[in-house]
């Protein structure tokens, strides 16, 4: 990858340490156990998607919703060159350094699920973008007295980014080729629904329904499909699937809840959140 002018950094991937050989009998038992689980998996029709339908949730012995952090990412430098891309080393998906002419890539991460408590599934890679001019215009004065190191440690920086009317996009690139649109809809019902309750209180069922209903069964999500969740001026959440707009909703609460999944207190990928905070700090000190 070419080294570009603006010093945005991502964590280095860890080096692989040599593993000690496993006891052959233990390995055989593990293989037999895995085979048994695989047979059960086929019997229950896992090919329908990562998530089990809510209609079967009470009887579902399999928990797919335990998140796992992504591996650490490679170093990166970014500029405003719209032709540059950043490749996610885990999935191989490219992310443009600049999106929609003025939204700069701040970090990439991975949404993972644990299957049967044994196997990690890479569901999708994601990239978080923000309008660099709006970041500076709205936040530079407030944080002008902070050093870069103080900004990196600030617990308020990400909060201000989520609260302010800053144009942002979270781009999802589907990595699990057997993911169904129903699984996405159900997963958002859980994750976004919990955030709506956390930040809005009360009953936000109608708002949640207006968002999740955009993910209609007619849409297919093969490996490499792209979902963009974009906050536009006036706290409008615009959703596109493979470049086609499927809906727009004006709601500050909904925008905040979506962003909280990726840069909030309990994000899907903690390392990606730290990378994003570090690059926000660098942006404000540019």
TrEMBL record:
What SUPFAM superfamilies does the annotation carry? Chalcone isomerase
An example molecular function term from Gene Ontology annotations: intramolecular lyase activity
Q: Could you state one GO cellular component term attached to this entry? A: chloroplast stroma
Q: What residues form the membrane-spanning segments?
A: 30-52
Q: Where is this region: Disordered?
A: 1-26
Q: Which part of the chain is the Chalcone isomerase domain? A: 104-276
InterPro entries associated with the record: Chalcone_isomerase, Chalcone_isomerase_3-sand, Chalcone_isomerase_bundle_sf, Chalcone_isomerase_sf, FAP1
Keywords noted in UniProt: Membrane, Transmembrane, Transmembrane helix
Q: Which GO terms describe its biological process?
A: fatty acid metabolic process
Please list which residues make up the signal peptide.
none
Stated family: Belongs to the chalcone isomerase family.
Quote the protein name from its UniProt record.
Chalcone isomerase domain-containing protein
Source organism:
Papaver nudicaule
């Amino acid at each position: 990858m070419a080294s570009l002018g603006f010093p945005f950094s991502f964590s280095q991937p860890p080096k692989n340490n040599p593993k000690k050989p496993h006891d052959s009998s233990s390995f055989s038992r593990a293989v037999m156990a895995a085979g048994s689980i695989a047979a059960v998996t086929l019997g229950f029709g896992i090919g329908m998607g990562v998530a089990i339908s809510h209609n079967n949730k009470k009887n579902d012995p399999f928990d797919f919703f335990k998140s796992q952090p992504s591996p650490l990412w490679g170093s990166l430098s970014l500029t405003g060159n719209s032709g540059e891309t950043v490749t996610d080393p885990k999935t191989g998906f490219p992310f443009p350094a600049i999106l929609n002419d003025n939204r700069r890539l701040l970090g990439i991460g991975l949404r993972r699920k644990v299957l049967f408590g044994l196997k990690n599934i890479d569901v999708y890679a994601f990239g978080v973008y923000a309008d660099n001019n709006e970041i500076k215009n709205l936040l530079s004065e407030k944080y002008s007295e902070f050093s870069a190191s103080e900004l990196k440690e600030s617990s308020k920086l990400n909060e201000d980014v989520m609260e302010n009317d800053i144009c942002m996009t979270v781009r999802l690139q589907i990595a699990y080729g057997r993911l169904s649109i129903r699984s996405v809809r159900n997963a958002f019902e859980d994750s976004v629904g919990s955030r709506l309750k956390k930040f809005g209180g009360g009953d936000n069922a109608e708002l949640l329904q207006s968002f999740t209903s955009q993910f209609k069964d007619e849409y297919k999500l093969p490996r490499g499909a792209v979902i963009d969740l974009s906050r536009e001026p006036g706290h409008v959440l615009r959703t596109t699937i493979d470049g086609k707009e499927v809906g727009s909703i004006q709601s500050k609460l909904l925008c905040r809840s979506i962003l909280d999944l990726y840069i909030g207190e309990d994000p899907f990928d903690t390392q990606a959140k730290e990378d994003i905070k570090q690059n926000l700090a660098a942006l404000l000190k540019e």
